[in-house]
């Protein structure tokens, strides 16, 4: 069965929901048609003309990128300008472009979690909270014979997560009754006769974003023609989402040692360091991209060092005066998330036959000499 763009978009937005993006961020489908078939996917940090040429060469008609290809409002579409030439090439070759930016920065397993993982940071927390996920309780009644398949189905679809614990449920056994009326095709029982069945009441937690996926999995695994289930809103805080992360190194390092570790982990030839290289650091704040303005939040959460890109002169002076050391590996280290996107797409059951590749084009405009 052909995979459509909307299928690809659904996988991305289940992982990095639109609701995680900062206000006015340019995300989502920027070029193309959600109904278009997906023949191949190229993953890139930036959509440049060389990236587009690569997509054409390898037969990928969809590009999933982190940075918007249309960021500022268009005043014209003149093809004698670099931007106009790029858009014309995308349209001429029926290429479709989907963007996941600050929503992917905030998403669990997204940009900032990848950057933390590369450094081996432990006990990480969100640095700049932007949203607390609402929670719902799902209650479903299952015949005892099908309890295990339904439990596994809803949990594998994302239900039952509390912190780092999965498959969290509560269960009660009892008796369910029903009377199949005319026109029914009951899995258990006979039309016109009152039936009593030993059932399990399964309770678990979900978020509104995965509700559709969980309910679909439940319906597929449940043997009843009309499963009985309830959804209740919970007046409890869920997981906190937001930009940046703060975590702890496994052991103290000198700032210079951390800088060297970072160069190797992020696969970069150099970086900028602000502070005494001999100073020992243990608590680290990380924000991929351009995050200099958030250094007070890093400091407030006890960070010894803040890792972010595009630091300017005055921000560096202010942070240093405030007792915070800085490491600037550049903006382009966000490309490390592309491998994670590839794994996410390849894990999706309906995308497994679609070729997905990370671009071989280096879109970093800076060189070290």
TrEMBL record:
One Pfam family named in its UniProt record: DUF34_NIF3
UniProt superkingdom: Bacteria
Entry keywords, A to Z: Metal-binding
Signal peptide feature range: none
SUPFAM superfamilies assigned to the protein according to its UniProt record, in alphabetical order: NIF3 (NGG1p interacting factor 3)-like
Family of the protein in this entry: Belongs to the GTP cyclohydrolase I type 2/NIF3 family.
NCBIfam families: YbgI_SA1388 (TIGR00486)
PANTHER family cross-referenced by the UniProt entry: GTP CYCLOHYDROLASE 1 TYPE 2 HOMOLOG (PTHR13799:SF14), NGG1 INTERACTING FACTOR 3 (PTHR13799)
Stated name of the protein: GTP cyclohydrolase 1 type 2 homolog
């Amino acid at each position: 069965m052909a995979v459509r763009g909307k299928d690809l978009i659904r996988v991305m937005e289940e992982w990095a929901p639109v609701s995680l993006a900062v206000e006015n961020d340019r995300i989502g489908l920027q070029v193309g048609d959600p109904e278009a078939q997906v023949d191949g996917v190229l993953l890139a940090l930036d959509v440049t003309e060389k990236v587009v040429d690569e997509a054409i060469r390898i037969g990928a008609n969809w590009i999933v990128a982190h940075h918007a290809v249309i960021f500022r409002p268009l005043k014209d579409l003149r093809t004698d300008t670099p931007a106009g030439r790029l858009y014309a090439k995308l349209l001429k070759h029926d290429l479709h472009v989907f963007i996941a930016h600050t929503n992917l920065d905030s998403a669990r397993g997204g940009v900032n979690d990848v950057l933390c993982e590369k450094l081996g940071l432990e006990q990480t927390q969100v640095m700049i909270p932007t949203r607390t996920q609402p929670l719902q309780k799902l209650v479903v009644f299952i015949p005892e014979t099908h309890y295990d398949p339904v439990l596994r189905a809803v949990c594998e679809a994302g239900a039952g997560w509390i912190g780092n614990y999965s498959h969290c449920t509560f269960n009660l056994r009892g008796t369910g009754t029903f009377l199949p009326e005319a026109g029914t095709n009951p899995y258990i029982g006979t039309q016109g006769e009152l039936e009593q069945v030993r059932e399990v009441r399964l309770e678990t937690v979900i978020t509104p974003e995965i509700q559709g996926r969980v309910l679909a999995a439940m319906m597929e695994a449940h043997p009843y023609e009309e499963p009985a289930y309830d959804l209740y809103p919970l007046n409890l805080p869920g997981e906190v989402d937001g930009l940046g992360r703060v975590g702890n190194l496994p052991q103290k390092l000198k700032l210079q040692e951390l800088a060297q570790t970072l160069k190797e982990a992020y696969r970069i030839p150099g970086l900028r360091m602000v502070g005494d290289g001999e100073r020992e650091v243990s608590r680290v704040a990380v924000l991929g991209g351009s995050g200099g303005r958030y250094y007070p939040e890093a400091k407030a959460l006890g960070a010894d060092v803040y890792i972010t890109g595009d630091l300017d002169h005055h921000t560096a002076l202010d942070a240093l005066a405030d007792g915070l050391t800085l490491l600037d590996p550049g903006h382009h280290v966000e490309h490390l998330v592309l491998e994670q996107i590839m794994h996410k797409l390849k894990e999706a059951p309906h995308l497994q036959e679609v070729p997905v590749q990370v671009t071989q084009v280096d879109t970093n405009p800076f060189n070290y000499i």
